[in-house]
Protein 1
Amino acid sequence: MTHGSQNAWVHGGLLLVGDAAHAGRADGQGANIAFEDAAVLGALVRQNGLGHKAFAAWEEVRQPRVRDILWDPKPDGATRSALIQNSAFEQLWCPLRVAAALPAGVRQEVQEAVARGGVEAGRQVVINWSQRAIRELVEAKAPIASGSNLALDPHYRFWPELLLGVSVR
Ligand SMILES: Cc1cc2nc3c(=O)[nH]c(=O)nc-3n(C[C@H](O)[C@H](O)[C@H](O)COP(=O)(O)OP(=O)(O)OC[C@H]3O[C@@H](n4cnc5c(N)ncnc54)[C@H](O)[C@@H]3O)c2cc1C
C-alpha cells in the first residue's frame, strides 16, 4: 500500500478501494475496512457529487483510519483496537433523514427524540429500532425458545441510513 500521501488512492477518475488500495495482513480487518470504504465513499459522493471532490475527501478521511488499523504503530495494538471499537459511522448519518424511510411509528419516535434531546437522542432511537429489527430477522430464521436470553452484540446494526442522504463530520 502506498498510504499517507495525497493521490495514493486516487488517479484522475480512477479510485482504488478495499485491498486494491490497502491490502494488509490477513488478520481480520481487511473486509471490514473495505465495507467502510464503500459506505464512506457513498456518503461523500452523495454530498459532493461523483468526481474529484468526493474522491479527494474520501482519501483524506480514510487514510489515517486505515493506516492505524492495518499498521498500528503501537506494539500492543491499542490504537487499532480503539478505532475498531469506535466505528465512525455515527458521524455519517442524520437520524431525521433516516427516519423518513422508517415505519411511521418509529419515524415519529425519532422526531420526538430529536426535538427533546437532540441528534444523539434521535440516533439512539434508530439504533434501538435497528437492533430490534435484526433480532426479529434472526429469530425468524432460527426460532429461539421463548424466554431465551439471547443478547445481540450491540455492534450488530442495520445501516439502511447509509443508502440515504448523510452528512460527514
Ligand atoms: C486467508 C485470509 C483470511 C482473511 N480473513 C479475514 C477476516 O477474518 N476478516 C476480514 O475482515 N478480512 C479478512 N481477510 C481479508 C479480506 O478477505 C480482504 O481484505 C477483502 O476480501 C478485500 O475485499 P476487496 O473487495 O477489496 O477485494 P477482493 O475480495 O479480493 O475482491 C476483488 C475481486 O475482484 C476480482 N478481480 C480481480 N481482478 C479482476 C479483473 N481483472 N477483472 C474482474 N475482476 C477481477 C477478484 O476475482 C475478486 O473477486 C482475509 C484474507 C485472507 C487471504
Note: The pocket of flavin-adenine dinucleotide is lined by residues 18-20, 26, 28-32, 34 (CB under 6 Å).
Protein 2
Amino acid sequence: MNFDENKTIVVIGAGPVGISAAAHLISRGLTPIVLEKGISVGAAISQWGHVKLFSPWNYIVDTQVRVLLQKTDWQEPDKKGLPTGQEIVDQYLIPASLTPQLYQAISYEKEVIAVSKQGHAKSSSNGRNGVEYTVHIRSTDGTVEIIKAAAVIDASGTWSNPNPIGLDGLPVSGERENQDAIVYGIPYALGKDKADYAGNRVLVLGGGHSAINVALDLLKLQRSHSDTKVIWGLRTNKLEKLLGGGINDELPARGDLGIAAKKAIDAGLLDVHAPFEVKRITKVTTGLSIEAITDNGQTTFEVDRIIVTTGFRPDLNMLRELRLELDSIVEAPKVLAPLIDPNLHSCGSVPPHGFRELSHPDENFYIVGMKAYGRAPTFLMLTGYEQVRSVAAQLAGDHESANRVELILPKTGVCSTNKSNSGSGCCEIEPEEINSSCCIPKVPMPAALPLVDKAESACCVTKSTPIPSKTSCCG
Ligand SMILES: Cc1cc2nc3c(=O)[nH]c(=O)nc-3n(C[C@H](O)[C@H](O)[C@H](O)COP(=O)(O)OP(=O)(O)OC[C@H]3O[C@@H](n4cnc5c(N)ncnc54)[C@H](O)[C@@H]3O)c2cc1C
C-alpha cells in the first residue's frame, strides 16, 4: 500500500527517533501526527539530561532533521563535541520541534495507551488487513480520544519501563515496599539529587555503561563528602567485558568510561562485586538491610539507597491487540533479535536493517528506535535513524530506497559471541583477542541486507575486510 498525504501516519513518541521518523515522512510528502506523552520533545532524555553521551554530535543529528533545521537560523553544534542529554534536547530536539514542518505535526501531553485495528480484536481475521488502526490517546485530564491511522510507527522508547532488581526479571522481596529508597535509571548525584546520596551508603546495581556513569559520579561526590560509600553489584560476572573496550572503542568517550571505572576498581575506590544477586531488601531503623549472594558467598549488609541500572524492557501492553512477531527472548522483531541478543554476542551493534526486519503480521505497523531493540541494551540513535529512513521510504512507496539499508556504526572494541552457545558460529575468541574483529552470530541473514555478504556475515570478519567496514557489525 502506498500512502498519500491524506492518510494519517501516527508516530508514537517525540524522542530523537520519533522526530527523525516525522522528518523523513515529511520529506516524502506524507503527513505524520506525532503523539508525545511528555510536555516537550525529548521528554525521556531530559530525565537523564545530566549524562554526557559517548556519541559525538555527528552521530546524533539525523540527516532529514538537519535539512529542516538548516532552513532556520539553527547553528549546528561542533560535530566532534560530546553533548549531554539535555544539550541534545535544548540544541537539537527543541529547535527541530519549532521548525514549521514539525511544529504542526507534534501534540504534547498525549499518551498512547493502546493501538488496535478498527473493529478487529487480535483474534479477528476477516477483513483485518483492509481496516485502519485505532490509536487510543489519553490526555493529562484523563480523557481518552481515539483517532484512526493508516500506519503507526511506535518510537516510544523503553525509558519508562526499567527492569526490576530480581535476576528472574521480577522485583525481589522488599523491592516494591521500599520504593522510597530505590531509584531506577541515572539520578543526578552531583546535581539536583545530591542530597539523596551525599554522605550515604549507596548500592549501585547493573552491569552497563549507565552503571559505570552512576558509580563514577558517586566517587566524585565522595571527594567532597568522604563518608559517601559506594557498593557496585553486577548481576553477572561480566566485568571484564564491560570494561574491556577501552582504547579500542571507536567512541572514545565510551571506552574512557570503562578505563576510568577500571582505574577506580584497581585503586580500591569502588567496592565491586560480580556476580551479585539481591535476595531480600528489608527496612531497618538505620537503613535498608540487603541479603545477597555475592562473590563472597551469602552476605548481609546495610545501605541507605539503591540505584538500579539493570536495563529496560518495552511496554507491550499498549500493543496487545496487534499481531506482532516478536522474539521470545529479547522482545525485538523476530528477524532483528538474533543480531542484537546479548546472549549471543556483545558486539553492540547490528548489520544495517530497515522496514523488512521491523515488519509484523499487521502491515504498516513498525516498532522503531530504542523500543525496536526490546530488552537488548546496545541501541544507538544512528541505528534508529536508518530504521525510520527505510520505513518512511516504504510507506511512501519508494521500495528501492526502503530496501537499500546502509549504516556505518562505530565499533566498541569488544565483540564476542557466547562460547557456550555452539550455534553462534565461529567467533569463539576471548574479547581481548578480537578487538579488531566483528562478529555476527550465525543466524540466517534476512534477505534485506544487500550490503552484507551472507557467507561472511554468519562468521567472524576482520577490520580489513571491506564489507564490514561499511556494514559495521561491531558497534
Ligand atoms: C543514559 C543513556 C545514554 C545513552 N547514550 C547514547 C549515546 O551516547 N549514543 C547513542 O546513540 N545512544 C545513546 N543512548 C541510547 C538511545 O539512543 C537513547 O536512549 C535515545 O534517546 C533513544 O531514542 P528513542 O527516540 O528511541 O527513545 P526515547 O528517547 O526514549 O524517546 C521516546 C519518547 O516517547 C515518549 N513516550 C513514551 N511512551 C509514550 C506513550 N505511550 N505515548 C506517547 N509518548 C510516549 C517519551 O516521553 C519519549 O519522549 C543512551 C541511552 C541512555 C539511557
Note: The chain has two domains: 9-160+313-414, 176-308.
Protein 3
Amino acid sequence: MSHGLLLRAKTAFPAALGATVAASVDLVQHARPAVRGPLDTTYGLCEHTPPAPVFDEGTGEVRDGSSARLSRFQLQAAARRLLGSGHRVSTCLRRPRTGLDGSPTLGVPICRRLDSGAAYYTGLLVCGNAWACPCCAAKISERRRLELIEAIRRHRAAGGEVLLMTTTVPHTRESCAFELVDAACEATRRFWSGKVRERAFAGVGLVGTVRALETTHSDANGWHPHFHSLLFVAGGLGIVALDALERRLFTRWARHVVAAGLGTASPDAFTLQGGELAARYVSKGWGLAEELSKANVKQSRAFGRTPFALLRDYAAGDARAGALFADYVSAFKGRSQLRYSRGLREHLGLGREATDEELAQAVPERTDEHLITISPRDWVLICRLELRGVVLELARTLTALELEHFFSTHRSTAPP
Ligand SMILES: [Zn+2]
C-alpha cells in the first residue's frame, strides 16, 4: 500500500477507525493491488468532499459518505461494550436470523443496489432501537423524516399551515434522567388530552399533531428533554392570531408542568413558530444525519451534547459520558420518539405507520444484486474484528472474488 493512500486513510477517518480502515485497505491492497483505483473511490480517500446526505430508499441507509456509515458501526460497537450483551443493540446487525423453523442460517448475504452501488446485509437481526442504536436510528429517523416532509407537503397543498411548537420543562443538574423524562411526558400527555384542548385551539382549525421527543445533556444544566410538535392547522393564521395562540398554549403548558410536579415553567421554555420554520426543522434539523455533522458536534458543546455525542465521547475514553448515555438509554426505553395524533395519518392519506423495527430493516429489491454470502465462520471473524462497516464499503465496488480474497486474508492473519 502506498504511503499516500495510507496517509489519506488516516486523515479521512477518526483516529481509531482510521487505523482499522487503513489496516483493512492495506490487506486488500496486498491481496490484489489492482483494486487500488476502486478503493480510492469507495473510501473517498482522495481530495473529494463527502457527498451531501442522501437517503437510499432500498437499503434504508443514509448515504452521507462512507465515514458517517463507518462511524455508526463504530458507535454501535461502543454501545455494545457499554450496555452489555444483554441489551438488544449488542445483537443488532450482528446475529443472523434463524429460519422460520428455527434452523440456523447458512451465512450472511450481502446485496448491492444496481442503481447506487450501496451494499447492505440481509438476514441479520436488527434491534430497531431509535434511542440506543446509531445504525437503526439513522434509518428510522431518515425514513420518518421523508414521511413527515410528505405529510407537510400534502397539508400545505390542501391550503393548511404547519406550526412548530417547542416545549421543555424546568430541570437542574441534579435532576434524575428517568424522573425528568417521565414527568415531561406526563405534562405533555395532559397538555394534549381533555376537552379543554378544543378551547385552547379555538379558531385555529387544528387537524392533528406530530410530536417528537428529544434530549440533550449539558454539564451545567443536566438533562434537557424537550418536545418538538408539528401542529397541522388551517391556513391563513395571521401574526396576531399566532401571538394569541402562543399565549393561550403557554398558560396551558405552564399549568400542566406544575401539575406534573416540575415547578414553574419559564416562558423561555415554550415557543410557537409559524411560517417556514416547521418545514425547515423537518428538512434540515431532523434526525441523526445532522447529528453526525461537524457543525452539530460544535453546537452540542455549547448547548449540550446529544446522546450520540455522549456515546462518541465514551468511545473516545470519556467514562462519565458513557454512564450518562447508559442513564439516557434506560430513561427513554419504551418511549415513542415520534407520535402522530389519532386520525392525522388517515387524514393525510399516509397509510399504516411502520414500526421502528420495520423501518430499520433493509428489504432487498428484486433488482438488487446478490453479491456474496459470507460464511458463518467468516462472519464471526468480521464481527470480532469490527469490520462490518468496512466490508459494506468494500462491497460497493469489489467483486465477489475480491471480497472472498479479503476474507481469506483476514482468516489467515487474525489472531486465534
Ligand atoms: Zn439497531
Note: The pocket of zinc ion is lined by residues 89, 92, 126-127, 129, 133, 135-136, 360 (CB under 6 Å).
Protein 4
Amino acid sequence: MPSPSPVAIAVDAAVRPAGVRPLRIGPVLVDPPVLQAPMAGFTNYAFRQIVRQLGGVGLPATEMISARGFLHMEARDHELPDRLWGVRDEPRPLAAQIWDNDPENLAAVGARLAREFQVSVVDINFGCPVRDICERAKSGSYLLRDPDRVGRLVARVVEACRPTPVTAKIRLGCTRDTINAIDVAQAVEDAGGAAVTVHGRTAKDLFRGSADWDAIAQIKPRLRHMPLVGNGDLRTADQVAEAFRRYGVDGVMIGRGALSRPWLFRQAQAALAGQPVPPDPTLDQQRELLLEHYRKIVERFGVERGTVLMRRYACCYAHGQPGARLFRMAISTVTTEDEFRSVVAEHFPRATMRSHPNAPEAC
Ligand SMILES: Cc1cc2nc3c(=O)[nH]c(=O)nc-3n(C[C@H](O)[C@H](O)[C@H](O)COP(=O)(O)O)c2cc1C
C-alpha cells in the first residue's frame, strides 16, 4: 500500500453520491462512478498512487499497452512493458487498457491481464488518433470506421477474458462527417462489452474545440443495458455533477483535468454527494505533492531518467497557477535531483506572482 500523502484527504467510505448511482462494470463496482482516463506518458503507477491517495477515484486505469508489443517483448527479451509497472501490487479496482487490431493478440494479452495480473477490467482502445497508432498500425480510432470489426474484436476479447469484464473506449467517429458512435457503441454492447466510454470528439478533432456532450447523450437511449461513460473537458467538480444531471451518463471519465489537479476526483465525489467541495490544497501542499510524486518516479526510473520524466508532470501541477510560466521555463531544463529541487523551491508558483495559463497540451 502507498505511504500516506502529506495532503491526503481521508476517503469517507460512507460518502455516496445522492441521485448518482455507483456504476457496475460487470461484477466490478465503480463508486463513485468517476473514472481516471488512461493517458499515455502520464498515468503510470506513480500517478495512480497519487490519485488513489487523494481519494474519490472510482476506477483508475493504466496507460494504453500495445498487445503486439507485449507479446514481442516477452518472446524476445523475457520482459514486460514498462507500462505494467505496479499493476500486480496495486489495490483494485484497476483497469488495464490494450490496443491492437488483431483479435488474437488482443485476446492473448487481455487474458493474461485478466488471469495472471488479475486486473478488474480490460479496456480496448478504439479512440487513439495518433498517427503511428492509426495510420501505421491501423488501430485505435482507425477501427471506428468499421463497427462490425470493432464488435468482432470485442467479442473475441470478451471470450478470452471471461469473467473479467471488457470495455471499449471510443471517440464520436473518425471525422465530423462520419460520426457513428451509436453504431460502434451498439456493436460493443452486442459483443458482450461491459461498458463503453465515449470521448466527445472525433479522431480528426484531436483535442481541438470542445467535447460534444450532446452527441454523447444521444448514445444513451440507443443502448439496451450497457453503461455509458462520458468523457471530455471535465475540469471542475461542478462540471462533473452537471454531466450526470444534463447528459444522463452512467459514469464520467476525467483525463487532463486530473493531471494538473489530481485532487479533482475527491472534489467531484463530494459534489456528487451534495456535500461542500473541499478546497484545492494550498500551494505549499501542492508543492509537497509534486515532490512526493517525484520521489515515486525516481524510485522506479532512477534520478537521471526520473528527473527528465518528471518535468512534464511538474508543468502540469503548475498549470494555471500564478507564476506557472517562469516555473515551466526553469523546470524544463533540469537534469539532476538538486536542480529539480532547487527550481521547485525557488519557482513553484506562488500566490504573489502573475498567472500565465499556457500549458502543454496534455494539461
Ligand atoms: C497525453 C495524453 C495521453 C493520452 N493517452 C491515452 C491512452 O493511452 N488511451 C486512451 O484511451 N486515451 C488517451 N488519451 C485520451 C484521454 O484518455 C481522454 O479521452 C482525453 O484526454 C479527453 O478527456 P479530458 O478532456 O478529460 O482530458 C490521452 C490524452 C492525453 C492528453
Note: DSSP finds 13 helices and ten strands in the chain.
